[in-house]
Amino acid sequence: MYISREDPDYPERLRLLPGMPKGLYVKGSLPDSGPSAAIVGARKCTVYGHKQAYAFGHYLASRGVQIISGMALGIDGYAQEGALDAGGKTFAVLGCGVDCCYPRSNRPLYNRIPEKGGILSELPEGTAPYAHFFPARNRIISALADLVLVIEAAEQSGSLITADFALEQGRTVYALPGRVGDRLSDGCNRLIYQGAGIAVSAEAVYEDLMSLYEGKTLSGRSFGQTSPPPIRKKRSVRKADTSSPSHTPQTKTEPAFAQPQREIADPLSRSILNLFRNETILSVDELSDRLSLSPAELAPRLVELSILGYLEEYGRNRFALRTAPL
Hints:
Blueprint: E1 2-4, H1 12-15, E2 23-28, E3 36-41, H2 47-62, E4 66-69, H3 75-85, E5 90-93, H4 107-116, E6 118-121, H5 134-143, E7 147-151, H6 158-168, E8 172-175, H7 183-193, E9 197-198, H8 202-213, H9 267-276, E10 282-283, H10 284-291, H11 295-307, E11 311-314, E12 318-321
């Protein structure tokens, strides 16, 4: 099936952008106007990347989010498998004709996708998967999504090309942080350093995706947004109880943040928390300067402290002690 740009079924997300295809070849169906997320990443991913790609795809799809990807080996395929196993919709944009299964080893996935979604390409049927077609198809993957999530990517990666297209198109970019020194984490950590949102959890990404879709203001976890950041929130402090005669005035109020899930034994994590005792909000760059560490080295600790309930994010990669229970 071929859908031209003049056809009313042509995706509105593409119609609104310059440089999009004059038409799409489709096997199955096209994405609708509902919320959508692109999940992309390394072909030769780690076990951790495999697990996270599947989990993010499954969680988002189970809540009605359409998953867009490229049906490639590794992250792309695992995310789309997760979406299908959740009973959700997923759409694969190919760098070849829709009648060509590439890679061949993904034939089971290729056969499943049209049952709940579709396989798309701007290239005519019969077109072989030449390397120079793939960077161009990445612009379609990002354009069909409200949010792009990168899971494992090297410094020089096709996934980063997708992230670049997303920025040009005004989409929001998230990245899953990884260990410093891991080759497949270098690209994601670099995106975070440049301002991408940190994919703390599938739940957090889903919440921000729905805020984007509903036209609400994000709490700043967006990369490439042109709107001004929201007003910074201030921490609440415990008020002294002056009703008791035995009350002794305190010279310093303490921040009222949520009871943490467990004690922090790691010295670096404790050092990070200590910096917040006398500061309301600190950016990743400010933390980097004070601790003499790179933002990429800090990112995993900040994610961990956020998950444990110590920190929450304000603005673009700016953190504060959590002021409300998880």
